[in-house]
Structure formats: C-alpha cells, structure tokens
Predict the 3D structure of the following.
Amino acid sequence: MGSHERPISPFMPRSPRLPPVAESSPRPPDRWYDSSATTSARSRGDRSRLREMSAHSRSTVGGSVVSPMSLDPFSSYKINDLNSFSMNDQRWTLQRKKIGLKRRTKGAQERRVKSRQTQDINLSFMHSNFTRKECIRYVKNANAKVEGSCYCGLLQNEHIPLSSLLTAPPPLKSEDGTLMNIQEKVDRKQQHKTSGLANNIFNTLSSLTRGNSVQLSSVAETSSRPPTATSKLSLQELETGVGQGEDNSVFSRENILLANGVTSRSRCNVIQPSSRPNTLPRIVMPAPDSPWRQDTHLYELPTNAYGSITFMNETAGSNKPSKYVRLSSTSNVKNVLTLLTDYWCLMDPNRPQLVISVTGGAKNFQLDGKKKEIFSSGLIKAVKSTNAWLLTGGMHVGIMKSVGEAVNRGQFIVKIKRKNFFSEERVHMIRGIRCLGVLPWGYIKNRESLMNSDVNQFTSVKYKVEENAAPLEPVSLDGDHTHFLFVDDGHRNVFRGVDDFRTRLEEGIRKPEPEGLGVPVVLLLLDGGVNSIIKCNLALKRDIPIVVVAGTGRAADLLAYAVSMTIHTPSGRFIMRKGHRAQLVNRISITMREIKSFPEKQKCADLLIECCTKVNMITIFDINSNEDMDKYILYALLTGEDVTSMQDQLSLALLWDRPDIAECEIFPAQKNWPSGALEDLMTTALLEEKVEFVKLFTMNGLVMADYLTVKKLRHLYNEACIPNSHLMRLLQRASQNNYHYLFHVHNVLQAMMRRHHDDIYTSDTPQAQSDNPSINYLTFEDPYMELLLWAIFSRRAWLANYLWQRCNSPLCAAIAASCLYQSLWRSLGAKNTDILEEYNKNKNTFELFAVNLLGVCYQQDVINALGLVERRNAKWGNSDCLELAVMANDLIFISTPAAQASVELNWRRGMSRAPFFAVMIANVFPLLIFWPRFFRFQKLGDNGGELTIPQKMVVFYKSPISKFCAHSTAFVIFLIVYAYVVLFDFKYEMSITEKFLFVWICIYVIDEISEIISEQSLTLRGKISDWAGSVWNRFDIVAFFLAFLALGLRLHRQTFKWGRIAYAVNTNVFYCRLFRMYHVNYHLGPKLVIFYRMISEVLVFLALLVIFILGYGIASQALLHPSRDAGSLNSTSVSSIMEDVLLTPYWQMYGELLLDEAEGDDQEVCHQKSCLINEFCTNATTTCKEKVSCVCESSKDYSWVVNLMLFFYLIIGNIMLLNLLIAIFTYVFDEVQENSMEIWKFEMLRLIREYDMKPSLIPPFVVLEYIWRVSKGTWKLFCRKHRENLEDYMKSTLDSLRIFEKEAISTYLVRITLDEECSVDNRVKRMSEKIDKITKYIEQKGEMEEIEEDLEWIIHETDGLKQNKGQSILLTNQSSEQQNTNIEKLISIQHQKHPTDGVQGRSRVEVMMDGDDESNQEDENELEDPPAQEVSNKDIEKEIKLLQAKVIGGRPYSSRSCAGTPSIAHRRNMDHLAGLTTRLDDLHEQLHLSQTTFNTMMKTIMARLDSIEGKI
C-alpha cells in the first residue's frame, strides 16, 4: 500500500483546536520562482487525492474541516482572513457602484491629481537631463552610398527647417478645453497647492533645476509638423548666437516646468545633473560652403522621444509595454543610472547581482536546434538565479534576436508593492527579467513613429516588428526587450555611436556606490566581427570578464583558438605558442571574409593577441558540449576584480546556487576558513532552502551546535514570517505583534504537540532579553531538531528532509515532524487545498522515513528496535514514538512489526503468555495465575530473576489485558442492573437498586474525570479537548447527561413520565458503549469504523431527502384535507398534521404506501361566499334554495393529483436517493476494508493506552484506588525529598541506543542512494549517454576509413614527386619558413571545418609537427614569428597540404571524455536492460581498441610524411 493510500481512523483523538487560517497557495519565495517556482510535485492522481481528502473530511479529527452539513460555504474562514484581500481601484470602484455610493470622492480626486503630478515629475526629469543631436546644416556627401545625402545620413529635405527651431511649446488647455497662457497655468497651479508637502517638493525641484541650461521644449524633427507659435528671436539672431542666457532665452526653465504642469517634486535620491551648462548653447549656423564637421553641424536639442512601446506582433514581447527614451551619445551616465533605478525602478523588487552584456553577430547570425536550446536555457538560468539585467543591442536581428527569444521563453510577471512620490504604496505588475536594449537612434526602422506628438505627455506607440532586414538598412526593434536606450550621435541610417556610450554605461554600472551601482558586469561573446573583438579588448582593459561561446563562429571561435594557444611563462606573462600567429592570421582570412587587406588581418590578430594577455579573465564555453552555460558565466565572474576574496566568491556561488563550483573550486582553494566566516552564508542558505550549500558548509568547518544560537533561530523565524503566511498567522495569535520570540514559538508548539519542554524557548521573552542579553548566545542540545521544526513551519520541505537526517534521534524526529504536519493540516482552513495537499504529502513522507528506518533497525537488532520505539523524549513531554504516532494518525508506522511487537508486549505487560479466556477466569479465580500452563511471566525480579508470588499478582492485575477484562465484565454487570431497573424497578419512589445504580454512574463520572486529568496537555482546556477527541468519550458525555437528566425529571411529579423516557433512551446509549469491546477482535473492529463513517453519509442523505419529504407531504396534505382551518388548531391537531406531513411520506418511501388515505374521504366542503342564487328566484323558497350554485370541493376531486405526485416521489426517493446511499455505503466499505488491518492495529493501540491508565480495581471498588492515588500524590508533593531519576538506571542503554540509531540511519541513507542509482530512470539516462558516445564513435570510424584511403593516395603521390625535378627545385627555392607558413595556411582550412578544435585541445598530429615547441614554450624571451606572407598557388602543393589538413581534421576521439562514465550495477529485475548494457560495453571496448590501433598507424604515416617532406 502506497503512502498516498494511508487510511484515516475516525476514532483518533483531536489535536488542540487552533482556529483555521487562510493562506496564499504557494509559499511566497524570497528568490526568483518559475511559477514555477514555485510549484510542488504532485504524485497522486485526482481520484486518490479526492479520496484521501474526503477521508480527512469525514473523520473526527475536527477543528478546521468543514462539516458535510455546514450551510455556510465560508465557515472555514475567519473574518480576519478577509483583511488579506486588498481593495484595489477596480474592486473599490465596482463595489461602490453596486452598493450605490458615489465614485467621485475626495480621495479618488487626490489620487488622480497625484498621478498627473508624478507624470509631470518624470517629464521634468526627461526634459532636464536628456537631449538629442540634430544636424542643422545640410552638406552634400559626394562619397555617400545614397545619392544626395548629407554627411549625417539625411537628405536635404529631411533636415530640420530653421523656423522650427523657434517653435514655442504647444498651447496649454484648461479643463474646459479653452486655451490658456503660461501665467494662467501658473495661477491655476498655485490655487491647487493644498499642503506643505507639495510646497517642499516644489522647492526641491526648483533647486534641482535652477542653474541648468534652458532647453527648447518642443522641436520637431521633420518639417511635417507646423509650428504653433513663434518667439521673438529672429532667424538672424539664432544664426549669430545672439540671445544666449536666461534673460534672452525663449523660455526660462521655471516657466517651462510650470507650463508643463510640473509641481515641484522629485525623488530623494535623484542625482543632480550638475554637468549641464548654465546657459542656452550658442547656435551658430555654419557657412553654407564650410566643410561638414560634428562640432559645428551637430547640435544638442531637448529630447523628443520617450514613452512606452506596445509591440503589435503576436510572437514579440509580452503584454506589458516596453519603456524607451532617446538620449545623446554624450549623456551623463549618472543621469542614465538615475533613470534606470529611480524612474524606471529596475531595482525592484530585488537588486540585481549581475549585468550580462551580450555582444556578437548581427544580421547573419542565428542559433538553431540544440545550440539554441543550450544558449537559451543557460542564459535564463543565470538571469533568474542572480536577478541579472541583460544588456544587448536591442534590434531584431542576430544575437540580439536570439537573446530576445530566450527572454520570451523565460519571462514571468512579478507583483510588487512600490511607494510613489507621496509615500503611498501601490501594487504594480512588473516583468521579472529585465532586458535593456542600447542601440543607435539613427539605425531604427520607423523611428519617426517613436517621437512624441506632444512633449508634455509620455507617448504610447504601437510598433510592428519586421522580420526581414535589408542589408545596410535600419532594422526593427526587438519586442522581447523591456527597456530601450536610443543613443543619438546625430548620424542617420548607419550603425555607429553606441559602442562608447555602452562601454561607459557598463563602467558606470560596475563602479561602487555612490558613483555607480556597484553591480558586476560580464561580457558574453557569440560570433561577432571586428567590432566585437574591439569591444572585448575594451572590456578587458576595464577588467570586465568575458565569456566566449565557442562554436558560434567568427570572432568567438578566433578568440577561443587564440586562448587555447596561449601559454603562461614563468615570469607571469601570457604569450602565444611559437608558430601559431601565422595560423591565427590564416584563420582570420577564412572566417573574417569582410577583412580584405592583409594589414587589417594583422591588426585583427594583434587585437586577439592583446586580448590573450589577460587570458585569466577569459572563460571559454563550448556550445557543443553538454554543460550548462550559467556555470561558465559564474566562472568568469569569479575571475573579475569585483570578486577578490574567497568569501565573495562563495557568496556568488551561493547566489547562483552552484554547489558544484563551490565544492570543486572554492573550498579546495581555502581549507581553513576564519571563525564565523560561513555563518552569514549559512543563514542565507537556510532561508533560500539551498540544501547542497548547507551540506557543504557543515562539511567544511561550520559546527551547527556553535552556529545556531537563540538569536539566530529567532532571526530565522522572523525572516520566515512572510505576510499572509501560515506561520505568521500562527505566531501572531501567540504574540499579538510583528516581532516574535522563541517563547511564542513554544506556545505554538505546545498547542500543536500538546507538550513541549525546552527551557531555552521559555526563557527567550522580551522582558528576559532586556534583563539578560546573554540569552541571545545560548545554544541547543540538538540544533538540527530545532532547525527541522523551523523548516516545517516555514514550508521548506527539501531542507526539512536533510535536517532530519542529521538529528540526534531521527526516528523520534520523523514521527514528531509527521505529527506537526498533521497539526498544521488541522489548523488550516479547508479552502487552502494546495497547502493542505502539501502538508499531507510531507506528513506521509516523514511517516515513510520513520517506517523505513524502523524496518532497518528491526532487521539489525530486534531488542534495540523495540527500545527505540519505547524510548521517551523529554522535549515532547516524555512521550514515546507510539504516543506521537497516535497524535499524528500514523497508521502505517503503528502497523510495522517493531511497533506491533511493542504493542503486544504492553498488552500483556510483564507476561509472556496470557490467553484471553484464561485472563477472564483468573480475574475471578486468582489462583489460576500461578498455573504455568496458562500464564508465564517475564524475568522482572529484583535481580533480573523470577518474580515472587505477590509480584506476579501485581503484574497480572496491572496489565492492560487484565484491566480490560475486569472493566468489561464490570460494565456488563452494570448494564444488567440498569436493564433491571428500567424494566422492573422504576417506581415513583427510588428503590435501593436505583440508588446503587446512580452511585455506580457517579463512580464512572469520577473515572472519566481521572482520565481528563491524566491527558498529556498541560492546560485544563487542552486536557478536556484531548479527552473529548475520542468518540467513546463523547458517548460517555451523552450517557451521563441523559442519566442525570432522567434523575432530575423523575424526582418531580409533573415530569415523572419524561424521566422514564430519558431512562429508556439512555439505555440505547449505554449499550452502544459496548461497541468499544469489539475493537479487541480483528473482524469486528473495522466494522465499527465502517459504521461510524456511514453516519455522516446518512446525514447527507437525510438532508437531501427532507426536501422531497416536505415538498410532497405539504402538497399531498393540502389536497387530501381541504377543509382544515387554522382557527381550529390545537396541540393534538398540530401533532397530527406534522405526522401526516413528515411521517406519512417517510413510511411511503419504505413501502407503506397508505393508498386508502391517498384516496381521501367523501366529505364535501362548500364555500359560502362563492354561492350564486338563480336570477328567476325572488324569494327564499325551498325550490329556489335548491337552485343555489356554490363552489364545493372534496378530496376525491384531487386523488388523481396526489397519486401522480406519489408516483414521482417514489421514483426520486426509492430509486434515486436510496441507490445513491447504497453506492456511498459501498464506497466507504471498500475503502475501510482495504485498510482494515491498519485501522484495527491503530485502535488496538489506543485501547491499550486507555486501559493502561485505568485503575486496577473495577467500579464501584475503584474509589479505594483513587483514595490511594490522591494520598500518594500528596506525599510526593509535600514529603518526598529527592525525586528518582529513571535515566540513571538506563543511561548505558540509552547511549547504546543512540549509537545504534546513528548506525541505522547511515545504513538507511546508503540504501536510498543505491536505490536512486539503480532506478530505471537513472539507468536509462546512463544508457542514453553511452549510446550517444557510441554514435560519435561510429561517425568517427567512417571518417577514419576515408582518411586511410587518402593517406594511401598521399604516399603514392609523394613517391612520384621525387622524380619531378622541376617541381622539387620550385619547392626548394622557397624558404623553410615560407613552406611552414604555407602548410599552416592550408591546414587552417580544415580547422575551419572543426571550429572547436582550438577549444578542445590540439591534435596529436599538430603536436608532432611542432617539433620541439613544447620544450621551448617556457622561454619568456622567445620572439614571436614574423608576419605571414601571401601563399603561392601551386596545384600539387595545394592538394598535398589539403590532404594533410584533412588528416589533422580527423583527430581521433579522446577517450578522456568517457572516463567518468559510471558503471551500471544492481541489474536485478532489469535483465533486458542489463543485456543491452553489456553489449554496449563490449562495443565500447572494441571501438576503443580500434582507435588505439589507428593512432599508432597515423604516427607511422606521419613519420614517413616528415621524411618525404625533408627530402623534397
């Protein structure tokens, strides 16, 4: 039986009833989630899940589960839970509309005003800090590709007309639509100043903008926008520069801001743009015949493009628009960073830990198939793990398009609360992945649509992305980018001006605060050309690490090859290997076809070699490998100067969740960590549930006993209290404030676990902290157990599984965890189905841990296994594992052999043999106890020997089996006496028998009170709740209540008859109490569970049936008795009517149709007011009276209607509802019968626990034992001097049990590891890896065969060359250096077919051809080779060298890659897979042998080729 089919016993006691709370379904993560996050695995199907949840809802575990008969569908929620649903604007507006309240309130108006003011402030920032560049004079470029274009790239008619430079701001409108001047606007704004806060904000903004240059706020870029007004400045003044300064400006800054509706308000951390000039730039028009220059023909004007873009393409972008702004290439980087952080709020919700700048191939680059998948998954994983920003070119081509597609796949939306300028929190939906596009304004397609038609408003543009990009033409934006920075350098229709700005932006991001953001930057290179190499060189000069994605072509492959050929000299320099510069130039000639001249190739090679001087900051990632790219990005980040210490590196590895890097790279580099260096990282790992790092920290010097102090644990609990979480609500009910101490956690644990004893928890109170601060540094005896409890409360299941493995008592910890999950399940509202399922799943997981661990212990040592089951835990009030399992309803654990062995021993308690019938007889005849044939006692004597005769008597009468037989016999006698009194001796005067009966009932009441006192809970309310959790105790409550009610009624004359009724009814309740005895029997016990479970189903059936009974009963009685009158009603008639309405339909459903009554009687009733006299009758004669017409009716008239209603009523009641009830009963029976064994064992344990606490004497003699117990308790309280410590007697045994349990948990964990390795999924995965390797071997084998044929031809042709003297002379005349250059040039052709060869390593043939280069590579004074020369085109030589290149290209597969393949073991039950694996292994060995043979043959052939070449 799987863990998801675990049975639920309805007779288990309730846990303390905590009010149910509501919680959001997923645990709100403190790291990025794939809503996904977010999500837990659900192994059960819908049917099994509903089945298990229905089992919970039908049980009496009570507390939070909605009753099947509940009429309120929201009864499981408390009123306070509704406060968690915030009232947004939509809900506020619609609810007020439905209620009838007005929406135009003062608060709503203020929000609208504040929204406009916020927009005005953002506009003010745009106008004050960002400009654009425009060409003011057309100069024809004779060399331009477009005929008639200027040096800036625009045609003459596309330049700005001079008249538009004098354009005034558009006229301002008032609320009624009329035009208003600036002064009117200023006056209107002054009237709306309502608070001192607005005045302060206005002063702040005024000081921010005072002294800055005056900007023209509205300048159109094209002549298609006519000016609306003209200032007083003339064209001549503009050309000569007259009018500069504030006094002669078109508008002052203050007027512009006020005209734009800007109230003086700004963010507190805005960086003031102090770099702006104080006056209007002097616009001096160059002479028409002057040459075009940037400093004279390009002028900065206020920006006119900002707002948001909504992409129209269905596949481009998300539903949220992208923000953009146009800015000058010389803009201050501080202002740009302010825009990103303060106005675009890219720091929300979490600060980025990394910026990934992607560069590389543009229009002709694309990734397909597996490469695209590896790149996308690795990039998004790196971004999500660090909350990184992506920085690209922003266009819909090349690598930028690939990055956009990756972002589109991994994009997600985050809901955050953000404060506005007025410190008001508003809910915003933002995108989790931030992708910034930095691109030139002049190279954007349809850029005119991005300009603002009104500079006083943020524009919202709908943009269509065009997939096809023409060569040398502007391209479209990429719709998957979230933000755009359009860099304007004044040039149009050409890609330029953005590299320097992007480099400065990256540098500003890297700078520490306050100069920058202090975020590390990593450059990612894919493909690319010369510009990409230049950018990499600039990045390395600024100490920005680079990740080169080899296998993507061009620049990336060239840099990867150069890095692979770079060596480290003893002096610390990085130089290229001898002879490989020429080969690098040859590779450039082949890959960089856009480079035509040989000097440019040399310059490109110099750039690559210069990059290799910082090879330690270059990380190579082969995209053809099966590794993750995010791992290499982290490697690159660790090599940067931003990360200097090992602790910083470890923090990055923790941030990226890469324990493999921490284990292999960081911890081996530093063995001894300073004291306390890992504590903060451990806290982060615990909060972020990074289990692998928790393991690493504990294995590398962190001692959990020293780490976990009271202060740390308190901090963990407060950090885990996420708003609206289950833990926060539980602790708030215990502490009534937002900061919680361990004392509050202790109260919650005590309520859920009934008992929790820990002096450290109780001492951590606010008052104790202020009096004694040293409490913060107290440590715990079992820190893993405390962290386990914290992980369970905070819903960190994976972390809880690991912490359980390290607990001092893992068996008890597993049961305690299961019990805590059960209590959390009960305390949660029934509507939180996802969390309920999570709790139930985790409960079953820990129960399975306990079952498997106990099974391992039972196999190794039965005695020690029983000792672990019965060992008491002081933390949980000296409860053993079985008591905790009863509270947790762990039926499977109780059904294990070890637990049942303990139950069996406790049932006989000191007796190894005691038949049930013999015990019953021995209770009457005590001498039978000493007959060894029936009773055998364990060796519990004083010295471990046999018991004495008095001791045997005590052992027998104190055993649960003896108590059960004695008390059951006494209860049967009690029922006989009760039946006698009810049947024969119930007189008006109480007889002696009846008085004795009531004394007996009072003794039973005292017995129940004793049971309440002996409950484990510490509070009276908790004890009563625990006691009332049992079904049988609730039976006792009803029986005692009816008994005393009957006694009170029979003592009074007027209610004597009701007293007899109460006596008689109570007989049923007392006899139902006999069912408790049936639990001893295996066959009868489960039937009681079935019976109890059916009661709730019957109530549901009756709730459905009563509707039809009332409907049919009232309708039928109304037709059968039309003469009834309300005025003649009395108690007798009312009872008769109720009987007819309710009971008659009920009996009819069971076959008592009463058809005679359905026909009705012959009595006719006439209504007097309906009578009409014949118009011909003028007197009241007898004849006329006979002609009176009245409305009369009788039941006979309606009998057919009653019969028709009876027909439909019987169809619904008899056929539908009864069969539905039968089907439900069948389902309940099958469900309980399937788990009948577990249920019987569980109830048997509870029966033993109950009778273990009962007195040995039976009622009514039990009073004597109670007197003895009270006397003994009084002596212990007042007279006992020293309390006996039982642990002193079993200290050695407890120590051995602790060691035994540690060994058992180690064995269990090893078995789990082996099972995971031998699982079908892992074996299939390993087989798939081997098949991939064999596929590569087969492909290489085909290439090897072709190479063998080519080698034979080479040998044949080279032998013929010896006889060709002319050709030999031609070859001899060439210098050996020139020959080597030509050979390497031609060999590089084949290397181009295998671009990753430079990354994977050099082939054996290349090493042989290098000769003694390896021995000379450490010479730091070694000079590099001279530049390569042009290659002669000799046909024979070309063929030879191409074939040599083909030989080198066919490098044999390295056997090193398969060395780490894990062996396949444990082939049990996998014969078909094992056979296939064996055949694959044999094929692997054969191919490896053939590879070795082929390598040897190649060495021989290459040696012969060298000799032939030397002769030539």
Notes: Residues 1320-1361 form the longest helix (42 residues).
